């Protein structure tokens, strides 16, 4: 129980950090306007975290998924990218009340999602004007 509580608290802390970054986004950074309706990056995030344990073929698709994800994020205005990632984490990868393994998987995905814009991944700038 304590492990599960710690896991949820760390996931909540990560989402809070993404929320703070997204809070400084302009008002047009909303889903359906400045942010894609259904972001494809969640498949790439799954392919790089615990998704390969659930569906091994995702590992083979990772390069193609990365290209799609980076292309999609590149089309998003730099000031909307943090919020786009936050929306993806909140909607596409929401935690389930399932097993501890599922909660750990969601946490790993949330942590990795925050790094998708960085230089080693997509190399995209954000509202901060750098690869954050």
TrEMBL record:
Location (main, coarse): secreted
Q: Does the keyword Secreted apply?
A: yes
| Keyword presence, Signal | yes
Query: Would you tell me the Gene Ontology cellular component terms?
Result: extracellular region
Q: Where in the cell is it found?
A: Secreted
Q: Which GO terms describe its molecular function?
A: serine-type endopeptidase inhibitor activity
Q: Which Gene3D superfamilies match?
A: Plant lipid-transfer and hydrophobic proteins
Q: Where is the signal peptide?
A: 1-23
What keywords is this UniProt entry annotated with?
Secreted, Signal
- Indicate the segments forming the Bifunctional inhibitor/plant lipid transfer protein/seed storage helical domain, all copies: 50-122
Q: Which InterPro entries match?
A: Allergen/soft/tryp_amyl_inhib (IPR006106), Bifun_inhib/LTP/seed_sf (IPR036312), Bifunc_inhib/LTP/seed_store (IPR016140)
Q: Which CDD domains match?
A: AAI_SS
Q: What's the name of the protein?
A: Bifunctional inhibitor/plant lipid transfer protein/seed storage helical domain-containing protein
